[in-house]
Design brief:
2 copies of one chain form a homodimer. Chain A is α/β, with parallel strands linked by helices. The first copy, chain A, folds into 2 domains: 240 residues, Aspartate Aminotransferase, domain 2; 137 residues, Alpha-Beta Complex (Aspartate Aminotransferase, domain 1), CATH 3.90.1150.10. The first copy, chain A, contains 16 helices and 12 strands. Chain A has a 7-stranded mixed beta sheet with strand order 1-7-6-5-4-2-3, sandwiched between helices. In chain A, strands 9-12-11 form a 3-stranded antiparallel beta sheet. In chain A, strand 4, helix 7 and strand 5 form a beta-alpha-beta unit. In chain A, helix 15 crosses helix 16. The longest helix of chain A has 27 residues. Chains A and B meet through helix 1, helix 4, helix 5 and helix 11 of A and helix 1, helix 4, helix 5 and helix 11 of B.
C-alpha cells in the first residue's frame, strides 16, 4: 500500500540476518548494538536457531518494559509474555485453551458484530459457540453493556459462556473505546466470570480528537485489587499494524494476566507444538518495543518516519469519512482509529431483490441456476456482496462487503482500508462516490 | 550447535530485509538478482507485506521446479504447493483436514513408533485416534508391511483409519527407507485407501553407503497410473534441517497429490486463517530450492559450504554409532540419515525398580510422595528418564529418553543428536560411555 518501512527496523533485521554487516561502517551504531544484543540472545548467535517456544527471553523482557512504560508503570512479568506468529496465532491458541465441553456445557465466546473474521473462523474450527453482541452503529460503533447482557442471557440457554473478545481500536469499525466503557466491560467480565481477550493490535492507530488508547491491562489494574487480582485477561499486539505495518514478518505477543499457574503450564505445552515463533519476527518485535532513544543516532530519523506515517493515516481517516458522507445513501462514522472505514450503504430494494433471487433458487439446484443465468443473470449473493462485485467490475476497486464481518439484519456496509496513498485514496473515493450514485439510479 | 549458515542464503535475506544494500558492491550479483526477483514478487516490493495464504507464487513455482529436478522430471504443479511455517505447521494443517467423526467412525492415523512427538501431540489435540506401528529395531529400524497390517487390523475394531504417516529419513531413528519398502507402503495405502503423509524434512541428510533418498512422490509416479492417479499424498519439507539448519526462519512447504479439488478449496480456506507464512521464511525457502548455479559467482562457496556441512554430519553419524557400540549394554543401529542416533540401552533391574517405585506410589498421593522423599528419594519416572536425569546430573549432558518417542515395552533408548562439533561430540560420547559403565556398576 506504499507505507514505507521504518529504516531502523530494517537495518537491524539486515544486520541480524547477515552479521558480517556488523563490520560495515554504513550502519549506525544503535542499529548494530540492537542487532548484537538480539544475536547474543539467540541460540548459537543466529536467527537460524530455534528459540524457546515462549520466545526469546530478553525480547520478552523488552516487551514487558514496553508495556510498563505504556501503562504508566503498572508492573509486567516477562513470564506472562508469549511471543507469537502475529496476533492471530496467539488469539487462536488462547481460544483453543478455553474451548471445551459438549452440548449445553460447550464453551461460548462473545464476539462483537461487526467482527474481524479470524474470530468466527477460529470458533467454527474449534466447534465453540459464537455469541454475537452488536456494536451500536448510531453511537459511533460503541459497545453497550446492555447489549452484552442481552447476548449473554440468551446464550446461557444453550451453551456455557466463558470468554469475551474485544477489538480496540476496532476492526472493521474503527472506533476507539472510552475508558468508561472499558471499566464497564471489566466489571461485567468480573460479575459474569468471563475471560477477557483484548485485541489491541491498533493501539498506536488513534486519530480522532478526544480519543485515546487505554489498554485493558492498565484500566484493570487502576480499578484496584478487587478486579486486578481476579479478572483473567489476555491481550494481543503485533508488528503488523500501527506505524510499523510489517505484516509479512509475523511478529506479535500476548500478555496473560491472572492465568491459573496450571493452565499456564498447559499453554506453554500447547505453544511448544509449533516449536517457536519465527525468529526474524521476534527480532523485529524487539526493536518495535525498544526503538531508538533521544540520545541515539537513529532517533531523529525514526521519529520523523513514525510521525509522518501516523499523521498521513490520520489525514486519510478524516478524508475518507468526509468524502463518503457527501454521498447521498452512504453514512460513515468517524474513523477514530485502526485502518478502516465501515460505512453503511443504502441499497435500493430492486438491487436487494436482484442479488437475492438466485440465492433463494439454489435449493432447486443446477437447473434453476442455469435458468437464472439464461433468463436474467441475477446473482445469488448477499446484497452488499452484489454491490461490491458490481463496483469491482465497473471500477476495479475491491472492497469487502459488510456481510463478511457481520451486521444487523437489513443493514449493508463495506469495509474500506485507509492505507492507499492520499492521491490514490482520493481517486478511489471519487470513483466510489460516482459508482454509488450510478448504482442507485440504475436500481431505483 | 555450531553449524554455519550458508553465506549466500544470509546475503539474500539481508538484501531482502534492507533493499538499500542492493546498491552495495560488497554483495555478489547472483545474491542481488535473487533478492530483486523475490522482492518483485512481494506485495509493494517488501518482505513486510502479507503474501497470499498459500505462499508467494514465484516461490511455489521455484519449489515445483526443485521437486521436478529432484524426482527426475516427474511434473509438479505449483498449485499443489502450500508454503508453511516450517514443516510442523503443514503437518498439523493436513491432519486437521483429515480428522473427523465420533466413536467408531473417529479418524485413525497410523504413526511409527518410535515417532517424532509432533505427531502424537497433534493427534491428541485433534482428538484423533493414534494407531501405532512399530519399526523393526533388529532390522535397522526398517518398516515391516506385516506390522502395518497388524496395526491396521487391530485399529479397525475401534476407529476409522484414514491416514498413514511416514518419516523418511527417520526421526528419531535415523533409518533411510529402501525403494522396495516405499513401493510396499504405497501398495498398502492404495489397498487400504489410506492418505499418505510423508515427512521428508531430512531428504538431504543421507550418510550410509548404499542408502539413497527416494521421495514418495517419485516412487508413486514410477509405479504407474494405477497408483499415481489414485493414492492421495502430502509430502513435507522444510528449511530447518539438511545442510541449511535454518530452524528459526520457520520456512517449509507441502506438496499435495491427488487431493480432491473440493478438499483443496477447504485446505486453502484453512490456511488462510493464519494469513500467510512468514515472508522471510518464504524468501529463504526460495534460495534453498533455487541455489547458486555453476555459472554464478557464489557457486563455489555455496558448494564448498554445503559439502563441508554434509560431510561433517556423515563423519559424526559414523563416529556416534562406532563409539556407542563399544559400550557394553548399549546397542546402536547405523545412523543412515537424519540427525540422531537412537541407541538401545540395557538398564539393570535394580535401576528399573528404583525409577518405578515412586511411580506406583503416586496413586497414594502426596503422603506417599513425601514418605518416599524422606525414606529413599526414589524417582517416579520411566526408567530411561531416570537414566537421562542421572546423566544430566552427573555430566551436564542432556539426552531425550526413548519414552518420549515411544518404544516397545521393556526396551529403553535415548535420542542423541549428532549436531555438536566433532570435538564436542567426541567428549560427549566418552562421557556417556563412562557414565553408562558407572551406572551399570552402581545398580548391579
Amino acid at each position: 500500500m506504499g507505507q514505507k518501512p521504518i529504516t531502523f527496523f530494517r537495518q537491524v533485521l539486515a544486520l541480524c540476518s547477515y552479521p558480517d554487516l556488523l563490520e560495515d561502517s554504513k550502519f549506525p551504531e544503535d542499529a548494530k548494538s540492537r542487532a548484537r544484543r538480539i544475536l547474543q540472545a539467540c541460540g548459537g548467535g543466529s536467527l537460524g536457531a530455534y528459540s524457546t517456544s515462549q520466545g526469546i527471553e530478553i525480547i520478552r523482557q523488552d516487551v514487558a518494559r514496553y508495556i510498563e512504560r505504556r501503562d504508566g508503570g503498572i508492573p509486567c512479568d516477562p513470564d506472562n509474555i508469549y511471543l507469537s506468529i502475529g496476533a492471530s496465532d496467539a488469539i487462536v491458541t488462547m481460544l483453543k485453551l478455553l474451548v471445551s465441553g459438549e452440548g449445553m456445557s460447550r464453551t461460548g465466546v462473545m464476539i462483537s458484530i461487526p467482527q474481524y473474521p479470524l474470530y468466527s473462523a477460529a470458533l467454527a474450527e474449534l466447534g465453540a459457540v459464537q455469541i454475537s453482541y452488536y456494536l451500536e452503529e448510531d453511537n459511533c460503533w460503541s459497545l453497550d453493556i446492555n447489549e452484552l447482557r442481552r447476548a449473554l442471557q440468551e446464550a446461557k440457554k444453550h451453551c456455557s459462556p466463558r470468554a469475551l473478545c474485544i477489538i480496540n481500536p476496532g476492526n472493521p469499525t474503527g472506533q476507539v473505546q472510552s475508558r468508561q466503557c472499558i471499566e464497564d466491560v471489566i466489571r461485567f467480565a468480573a460479575t459474569e466470570n468471563l475471560f477477557l481477550m483484548s485485541d489491541e493490535v491498533y493501539q498506536d492507530n488513534v486519530y480522532a480528537d478526544g480519543c485515546k488508547f487505554h489498554s485493558f491491562k492498565k484500566v484493570l489494574f487502576e480499578m484496584g485489587p478487587e478486579y486486578s487480582e481476579k479478572v483473567e485477561l489476555a491481550s494481543f499486539h503485533s508488528t503488523s499494524k500501527c506505524y510499523m505495518g510489517e505484516c509479512g514478518f509475523r511478529g506479535g505477543y500476548m500478555e496473560v494476566v491472572n492465568l491459573d499457574p496450571e493452565v499456564k503450564v498447559q499453554l506453554t505445552k500447547l505453544v511448544s507444538v509449533r516449536l517457536c515463533p519465527p525468529v526474524p519476527g521476534q527480532a523485529l518485535l524487539d526493536v518495535v518495543v525498544n526503538p531508538p532513544q533521544p540520545d541515539e543516532p537513529s532517533y531523529d530519523t525514526f521519529i520523523k518516519e513514525r510521525t509522518e506515517t501516523l499523521a498521513t493515516l490520520a489525514e486519510k481517516a478524516n478524508m475518507t469519512q468526509e468524502i463518503l458522507n457527501q454521498v447521498p445513501g452512504i453514512k460513515c462514522n468517524p474513523v477514530q482509529g485502526a485502518m478502516y472505514s465501515f460505512p453503511r450503504i443504502h441499497l435500493p430494494p430492486k438491487a436487494i431483490l436482484e442479488a437475492k433471487v438466485e440465492s433463494a433458487c439454489t435449493q432447486f439446484n443446477l437447473i434453476s441456476v442455469l435458468f437464472m443465468d439464461i433468463s436474467k443473470g441475477e446473482k445469488g449473493q448477499s446484497p452488499d456482496m452484489f454491490y461490491c462485485m458490481k463496483l469491482l467490475e465497473e471500477t476495479g476497486i475491491c472492497l469487502v462487503p459488510g456481510s463478511g464481518f457481520g451486521q444487523r439484519d437489513g443493514t449493508y456496509h463495506f469495509r474500506m482500508t485507509i492505507l492507499p496513498s492520499k492521491e490514490k485514496l482520493k481517486i478511489v473515493l471519487a470513483k466510489i462516490k460516482e459508482f454509488h450514485q450510478h448504482f442507485t439510479d440504475q436500481y431505483s
